Amino acid sequence: MAQQLRAIKRRIGSVKSTQKITRAMELIASSRIIKASQRVEAARPYAEEMRRLMGSVAANAGKIDHPLLQGRDEVSAVGTIVVTSDRGLAGAYNSNVIRAAERDMRDHGQDIRLFLTGKKGVSYFKFRGHDVDDAWTGNSEAPRIEDAREIAETAGKAFAEGDIDQVRLAYTKFESAMTQRPVVIQILPMAEEDIEELEKEQEEAEGPSPQYEFEPDPEEILNYLLPRYLEGIIYQGLLEAAASELAARRRAMKAATDNAEEIVEDLTRTYNQARQAEITTEIMEVVGGAEALTSADGGRHGGEG
Length: 305
What we know:
The structure is a single chain. This protein has 6 helices and 5 strands; from the N terminus they run αβαβαβαββαα. The chain is an alpha/beta fold. The chain folds into 2 domains: 2-18 and 256-295, Helix Hairpins, CATH 1.10.287; 21-250, ATP synthase, F1 complex, gamma subunit (Pyruvate Kinase, Chain: A, domain 1, 3-Layer(aba) Sandwich). A 5-stranded mixed β-sheet has the order 3-2-1-4-5, with helices on both faces. β4 (166-174) and β5 form a beta hairpin. The protein starts with a helix and ends with a helix.
């Protein structure tokens, strides 16, 4: 019994130590979410205006033979940028975005070229035998514009040289601290529905539609804007993913902390019951011993009489 009590006490101590760690990680994630969500909100207007600008140029430039505007006759190779985290302990965050990316790959069914961010994505796809064209790790919680620029240059070059016919971005969209959603979007060439949507917005807008004159020619403008468009869209995805990662980690650590609390309560209850049983046994042994002594003493006096 004493050995069992010691084992329970050790287990309680171990769970409490783990609880302190998960609680600390929850608090750290909570403090970082504020800054991460602010970065998301600050970057959204730029990404939206860049998308609008590219769509406006595409919609008003007339017939231009440019890969950004013209889809390939045959899409045989698709480059997919998958944004994951460097660390775990974030619940289903990584598995959800990877599952969305894999579903998108199956739907396209072409030769898939992988461009990965985050150690978790790299280890997942390499373990399953996938070739990885390029990978970026170490900054999943606090992405930099330099990271987005490097990814954009790598994927954009592969697209411009004809190595891939489409570039798609899989990331987790940050909608709120409680809601995050994995999405996959096409970023190159600009999807026809995006251009049609922008044309529709212009038609529905009050007042005359803007008229454009291009200096220098539209192709030069697009060549200049293309890297910045890619960079802005990818950077927005990295920021959204970083905020989503922190939100998922906070939620996972809170659940772990709450579970640890329940385990400690159950173990404490078990310990108290075992301790009570031990005390009861000791009392019964004392009482039994006293009764035995009394009986022995009574028998001795009876013999003397």
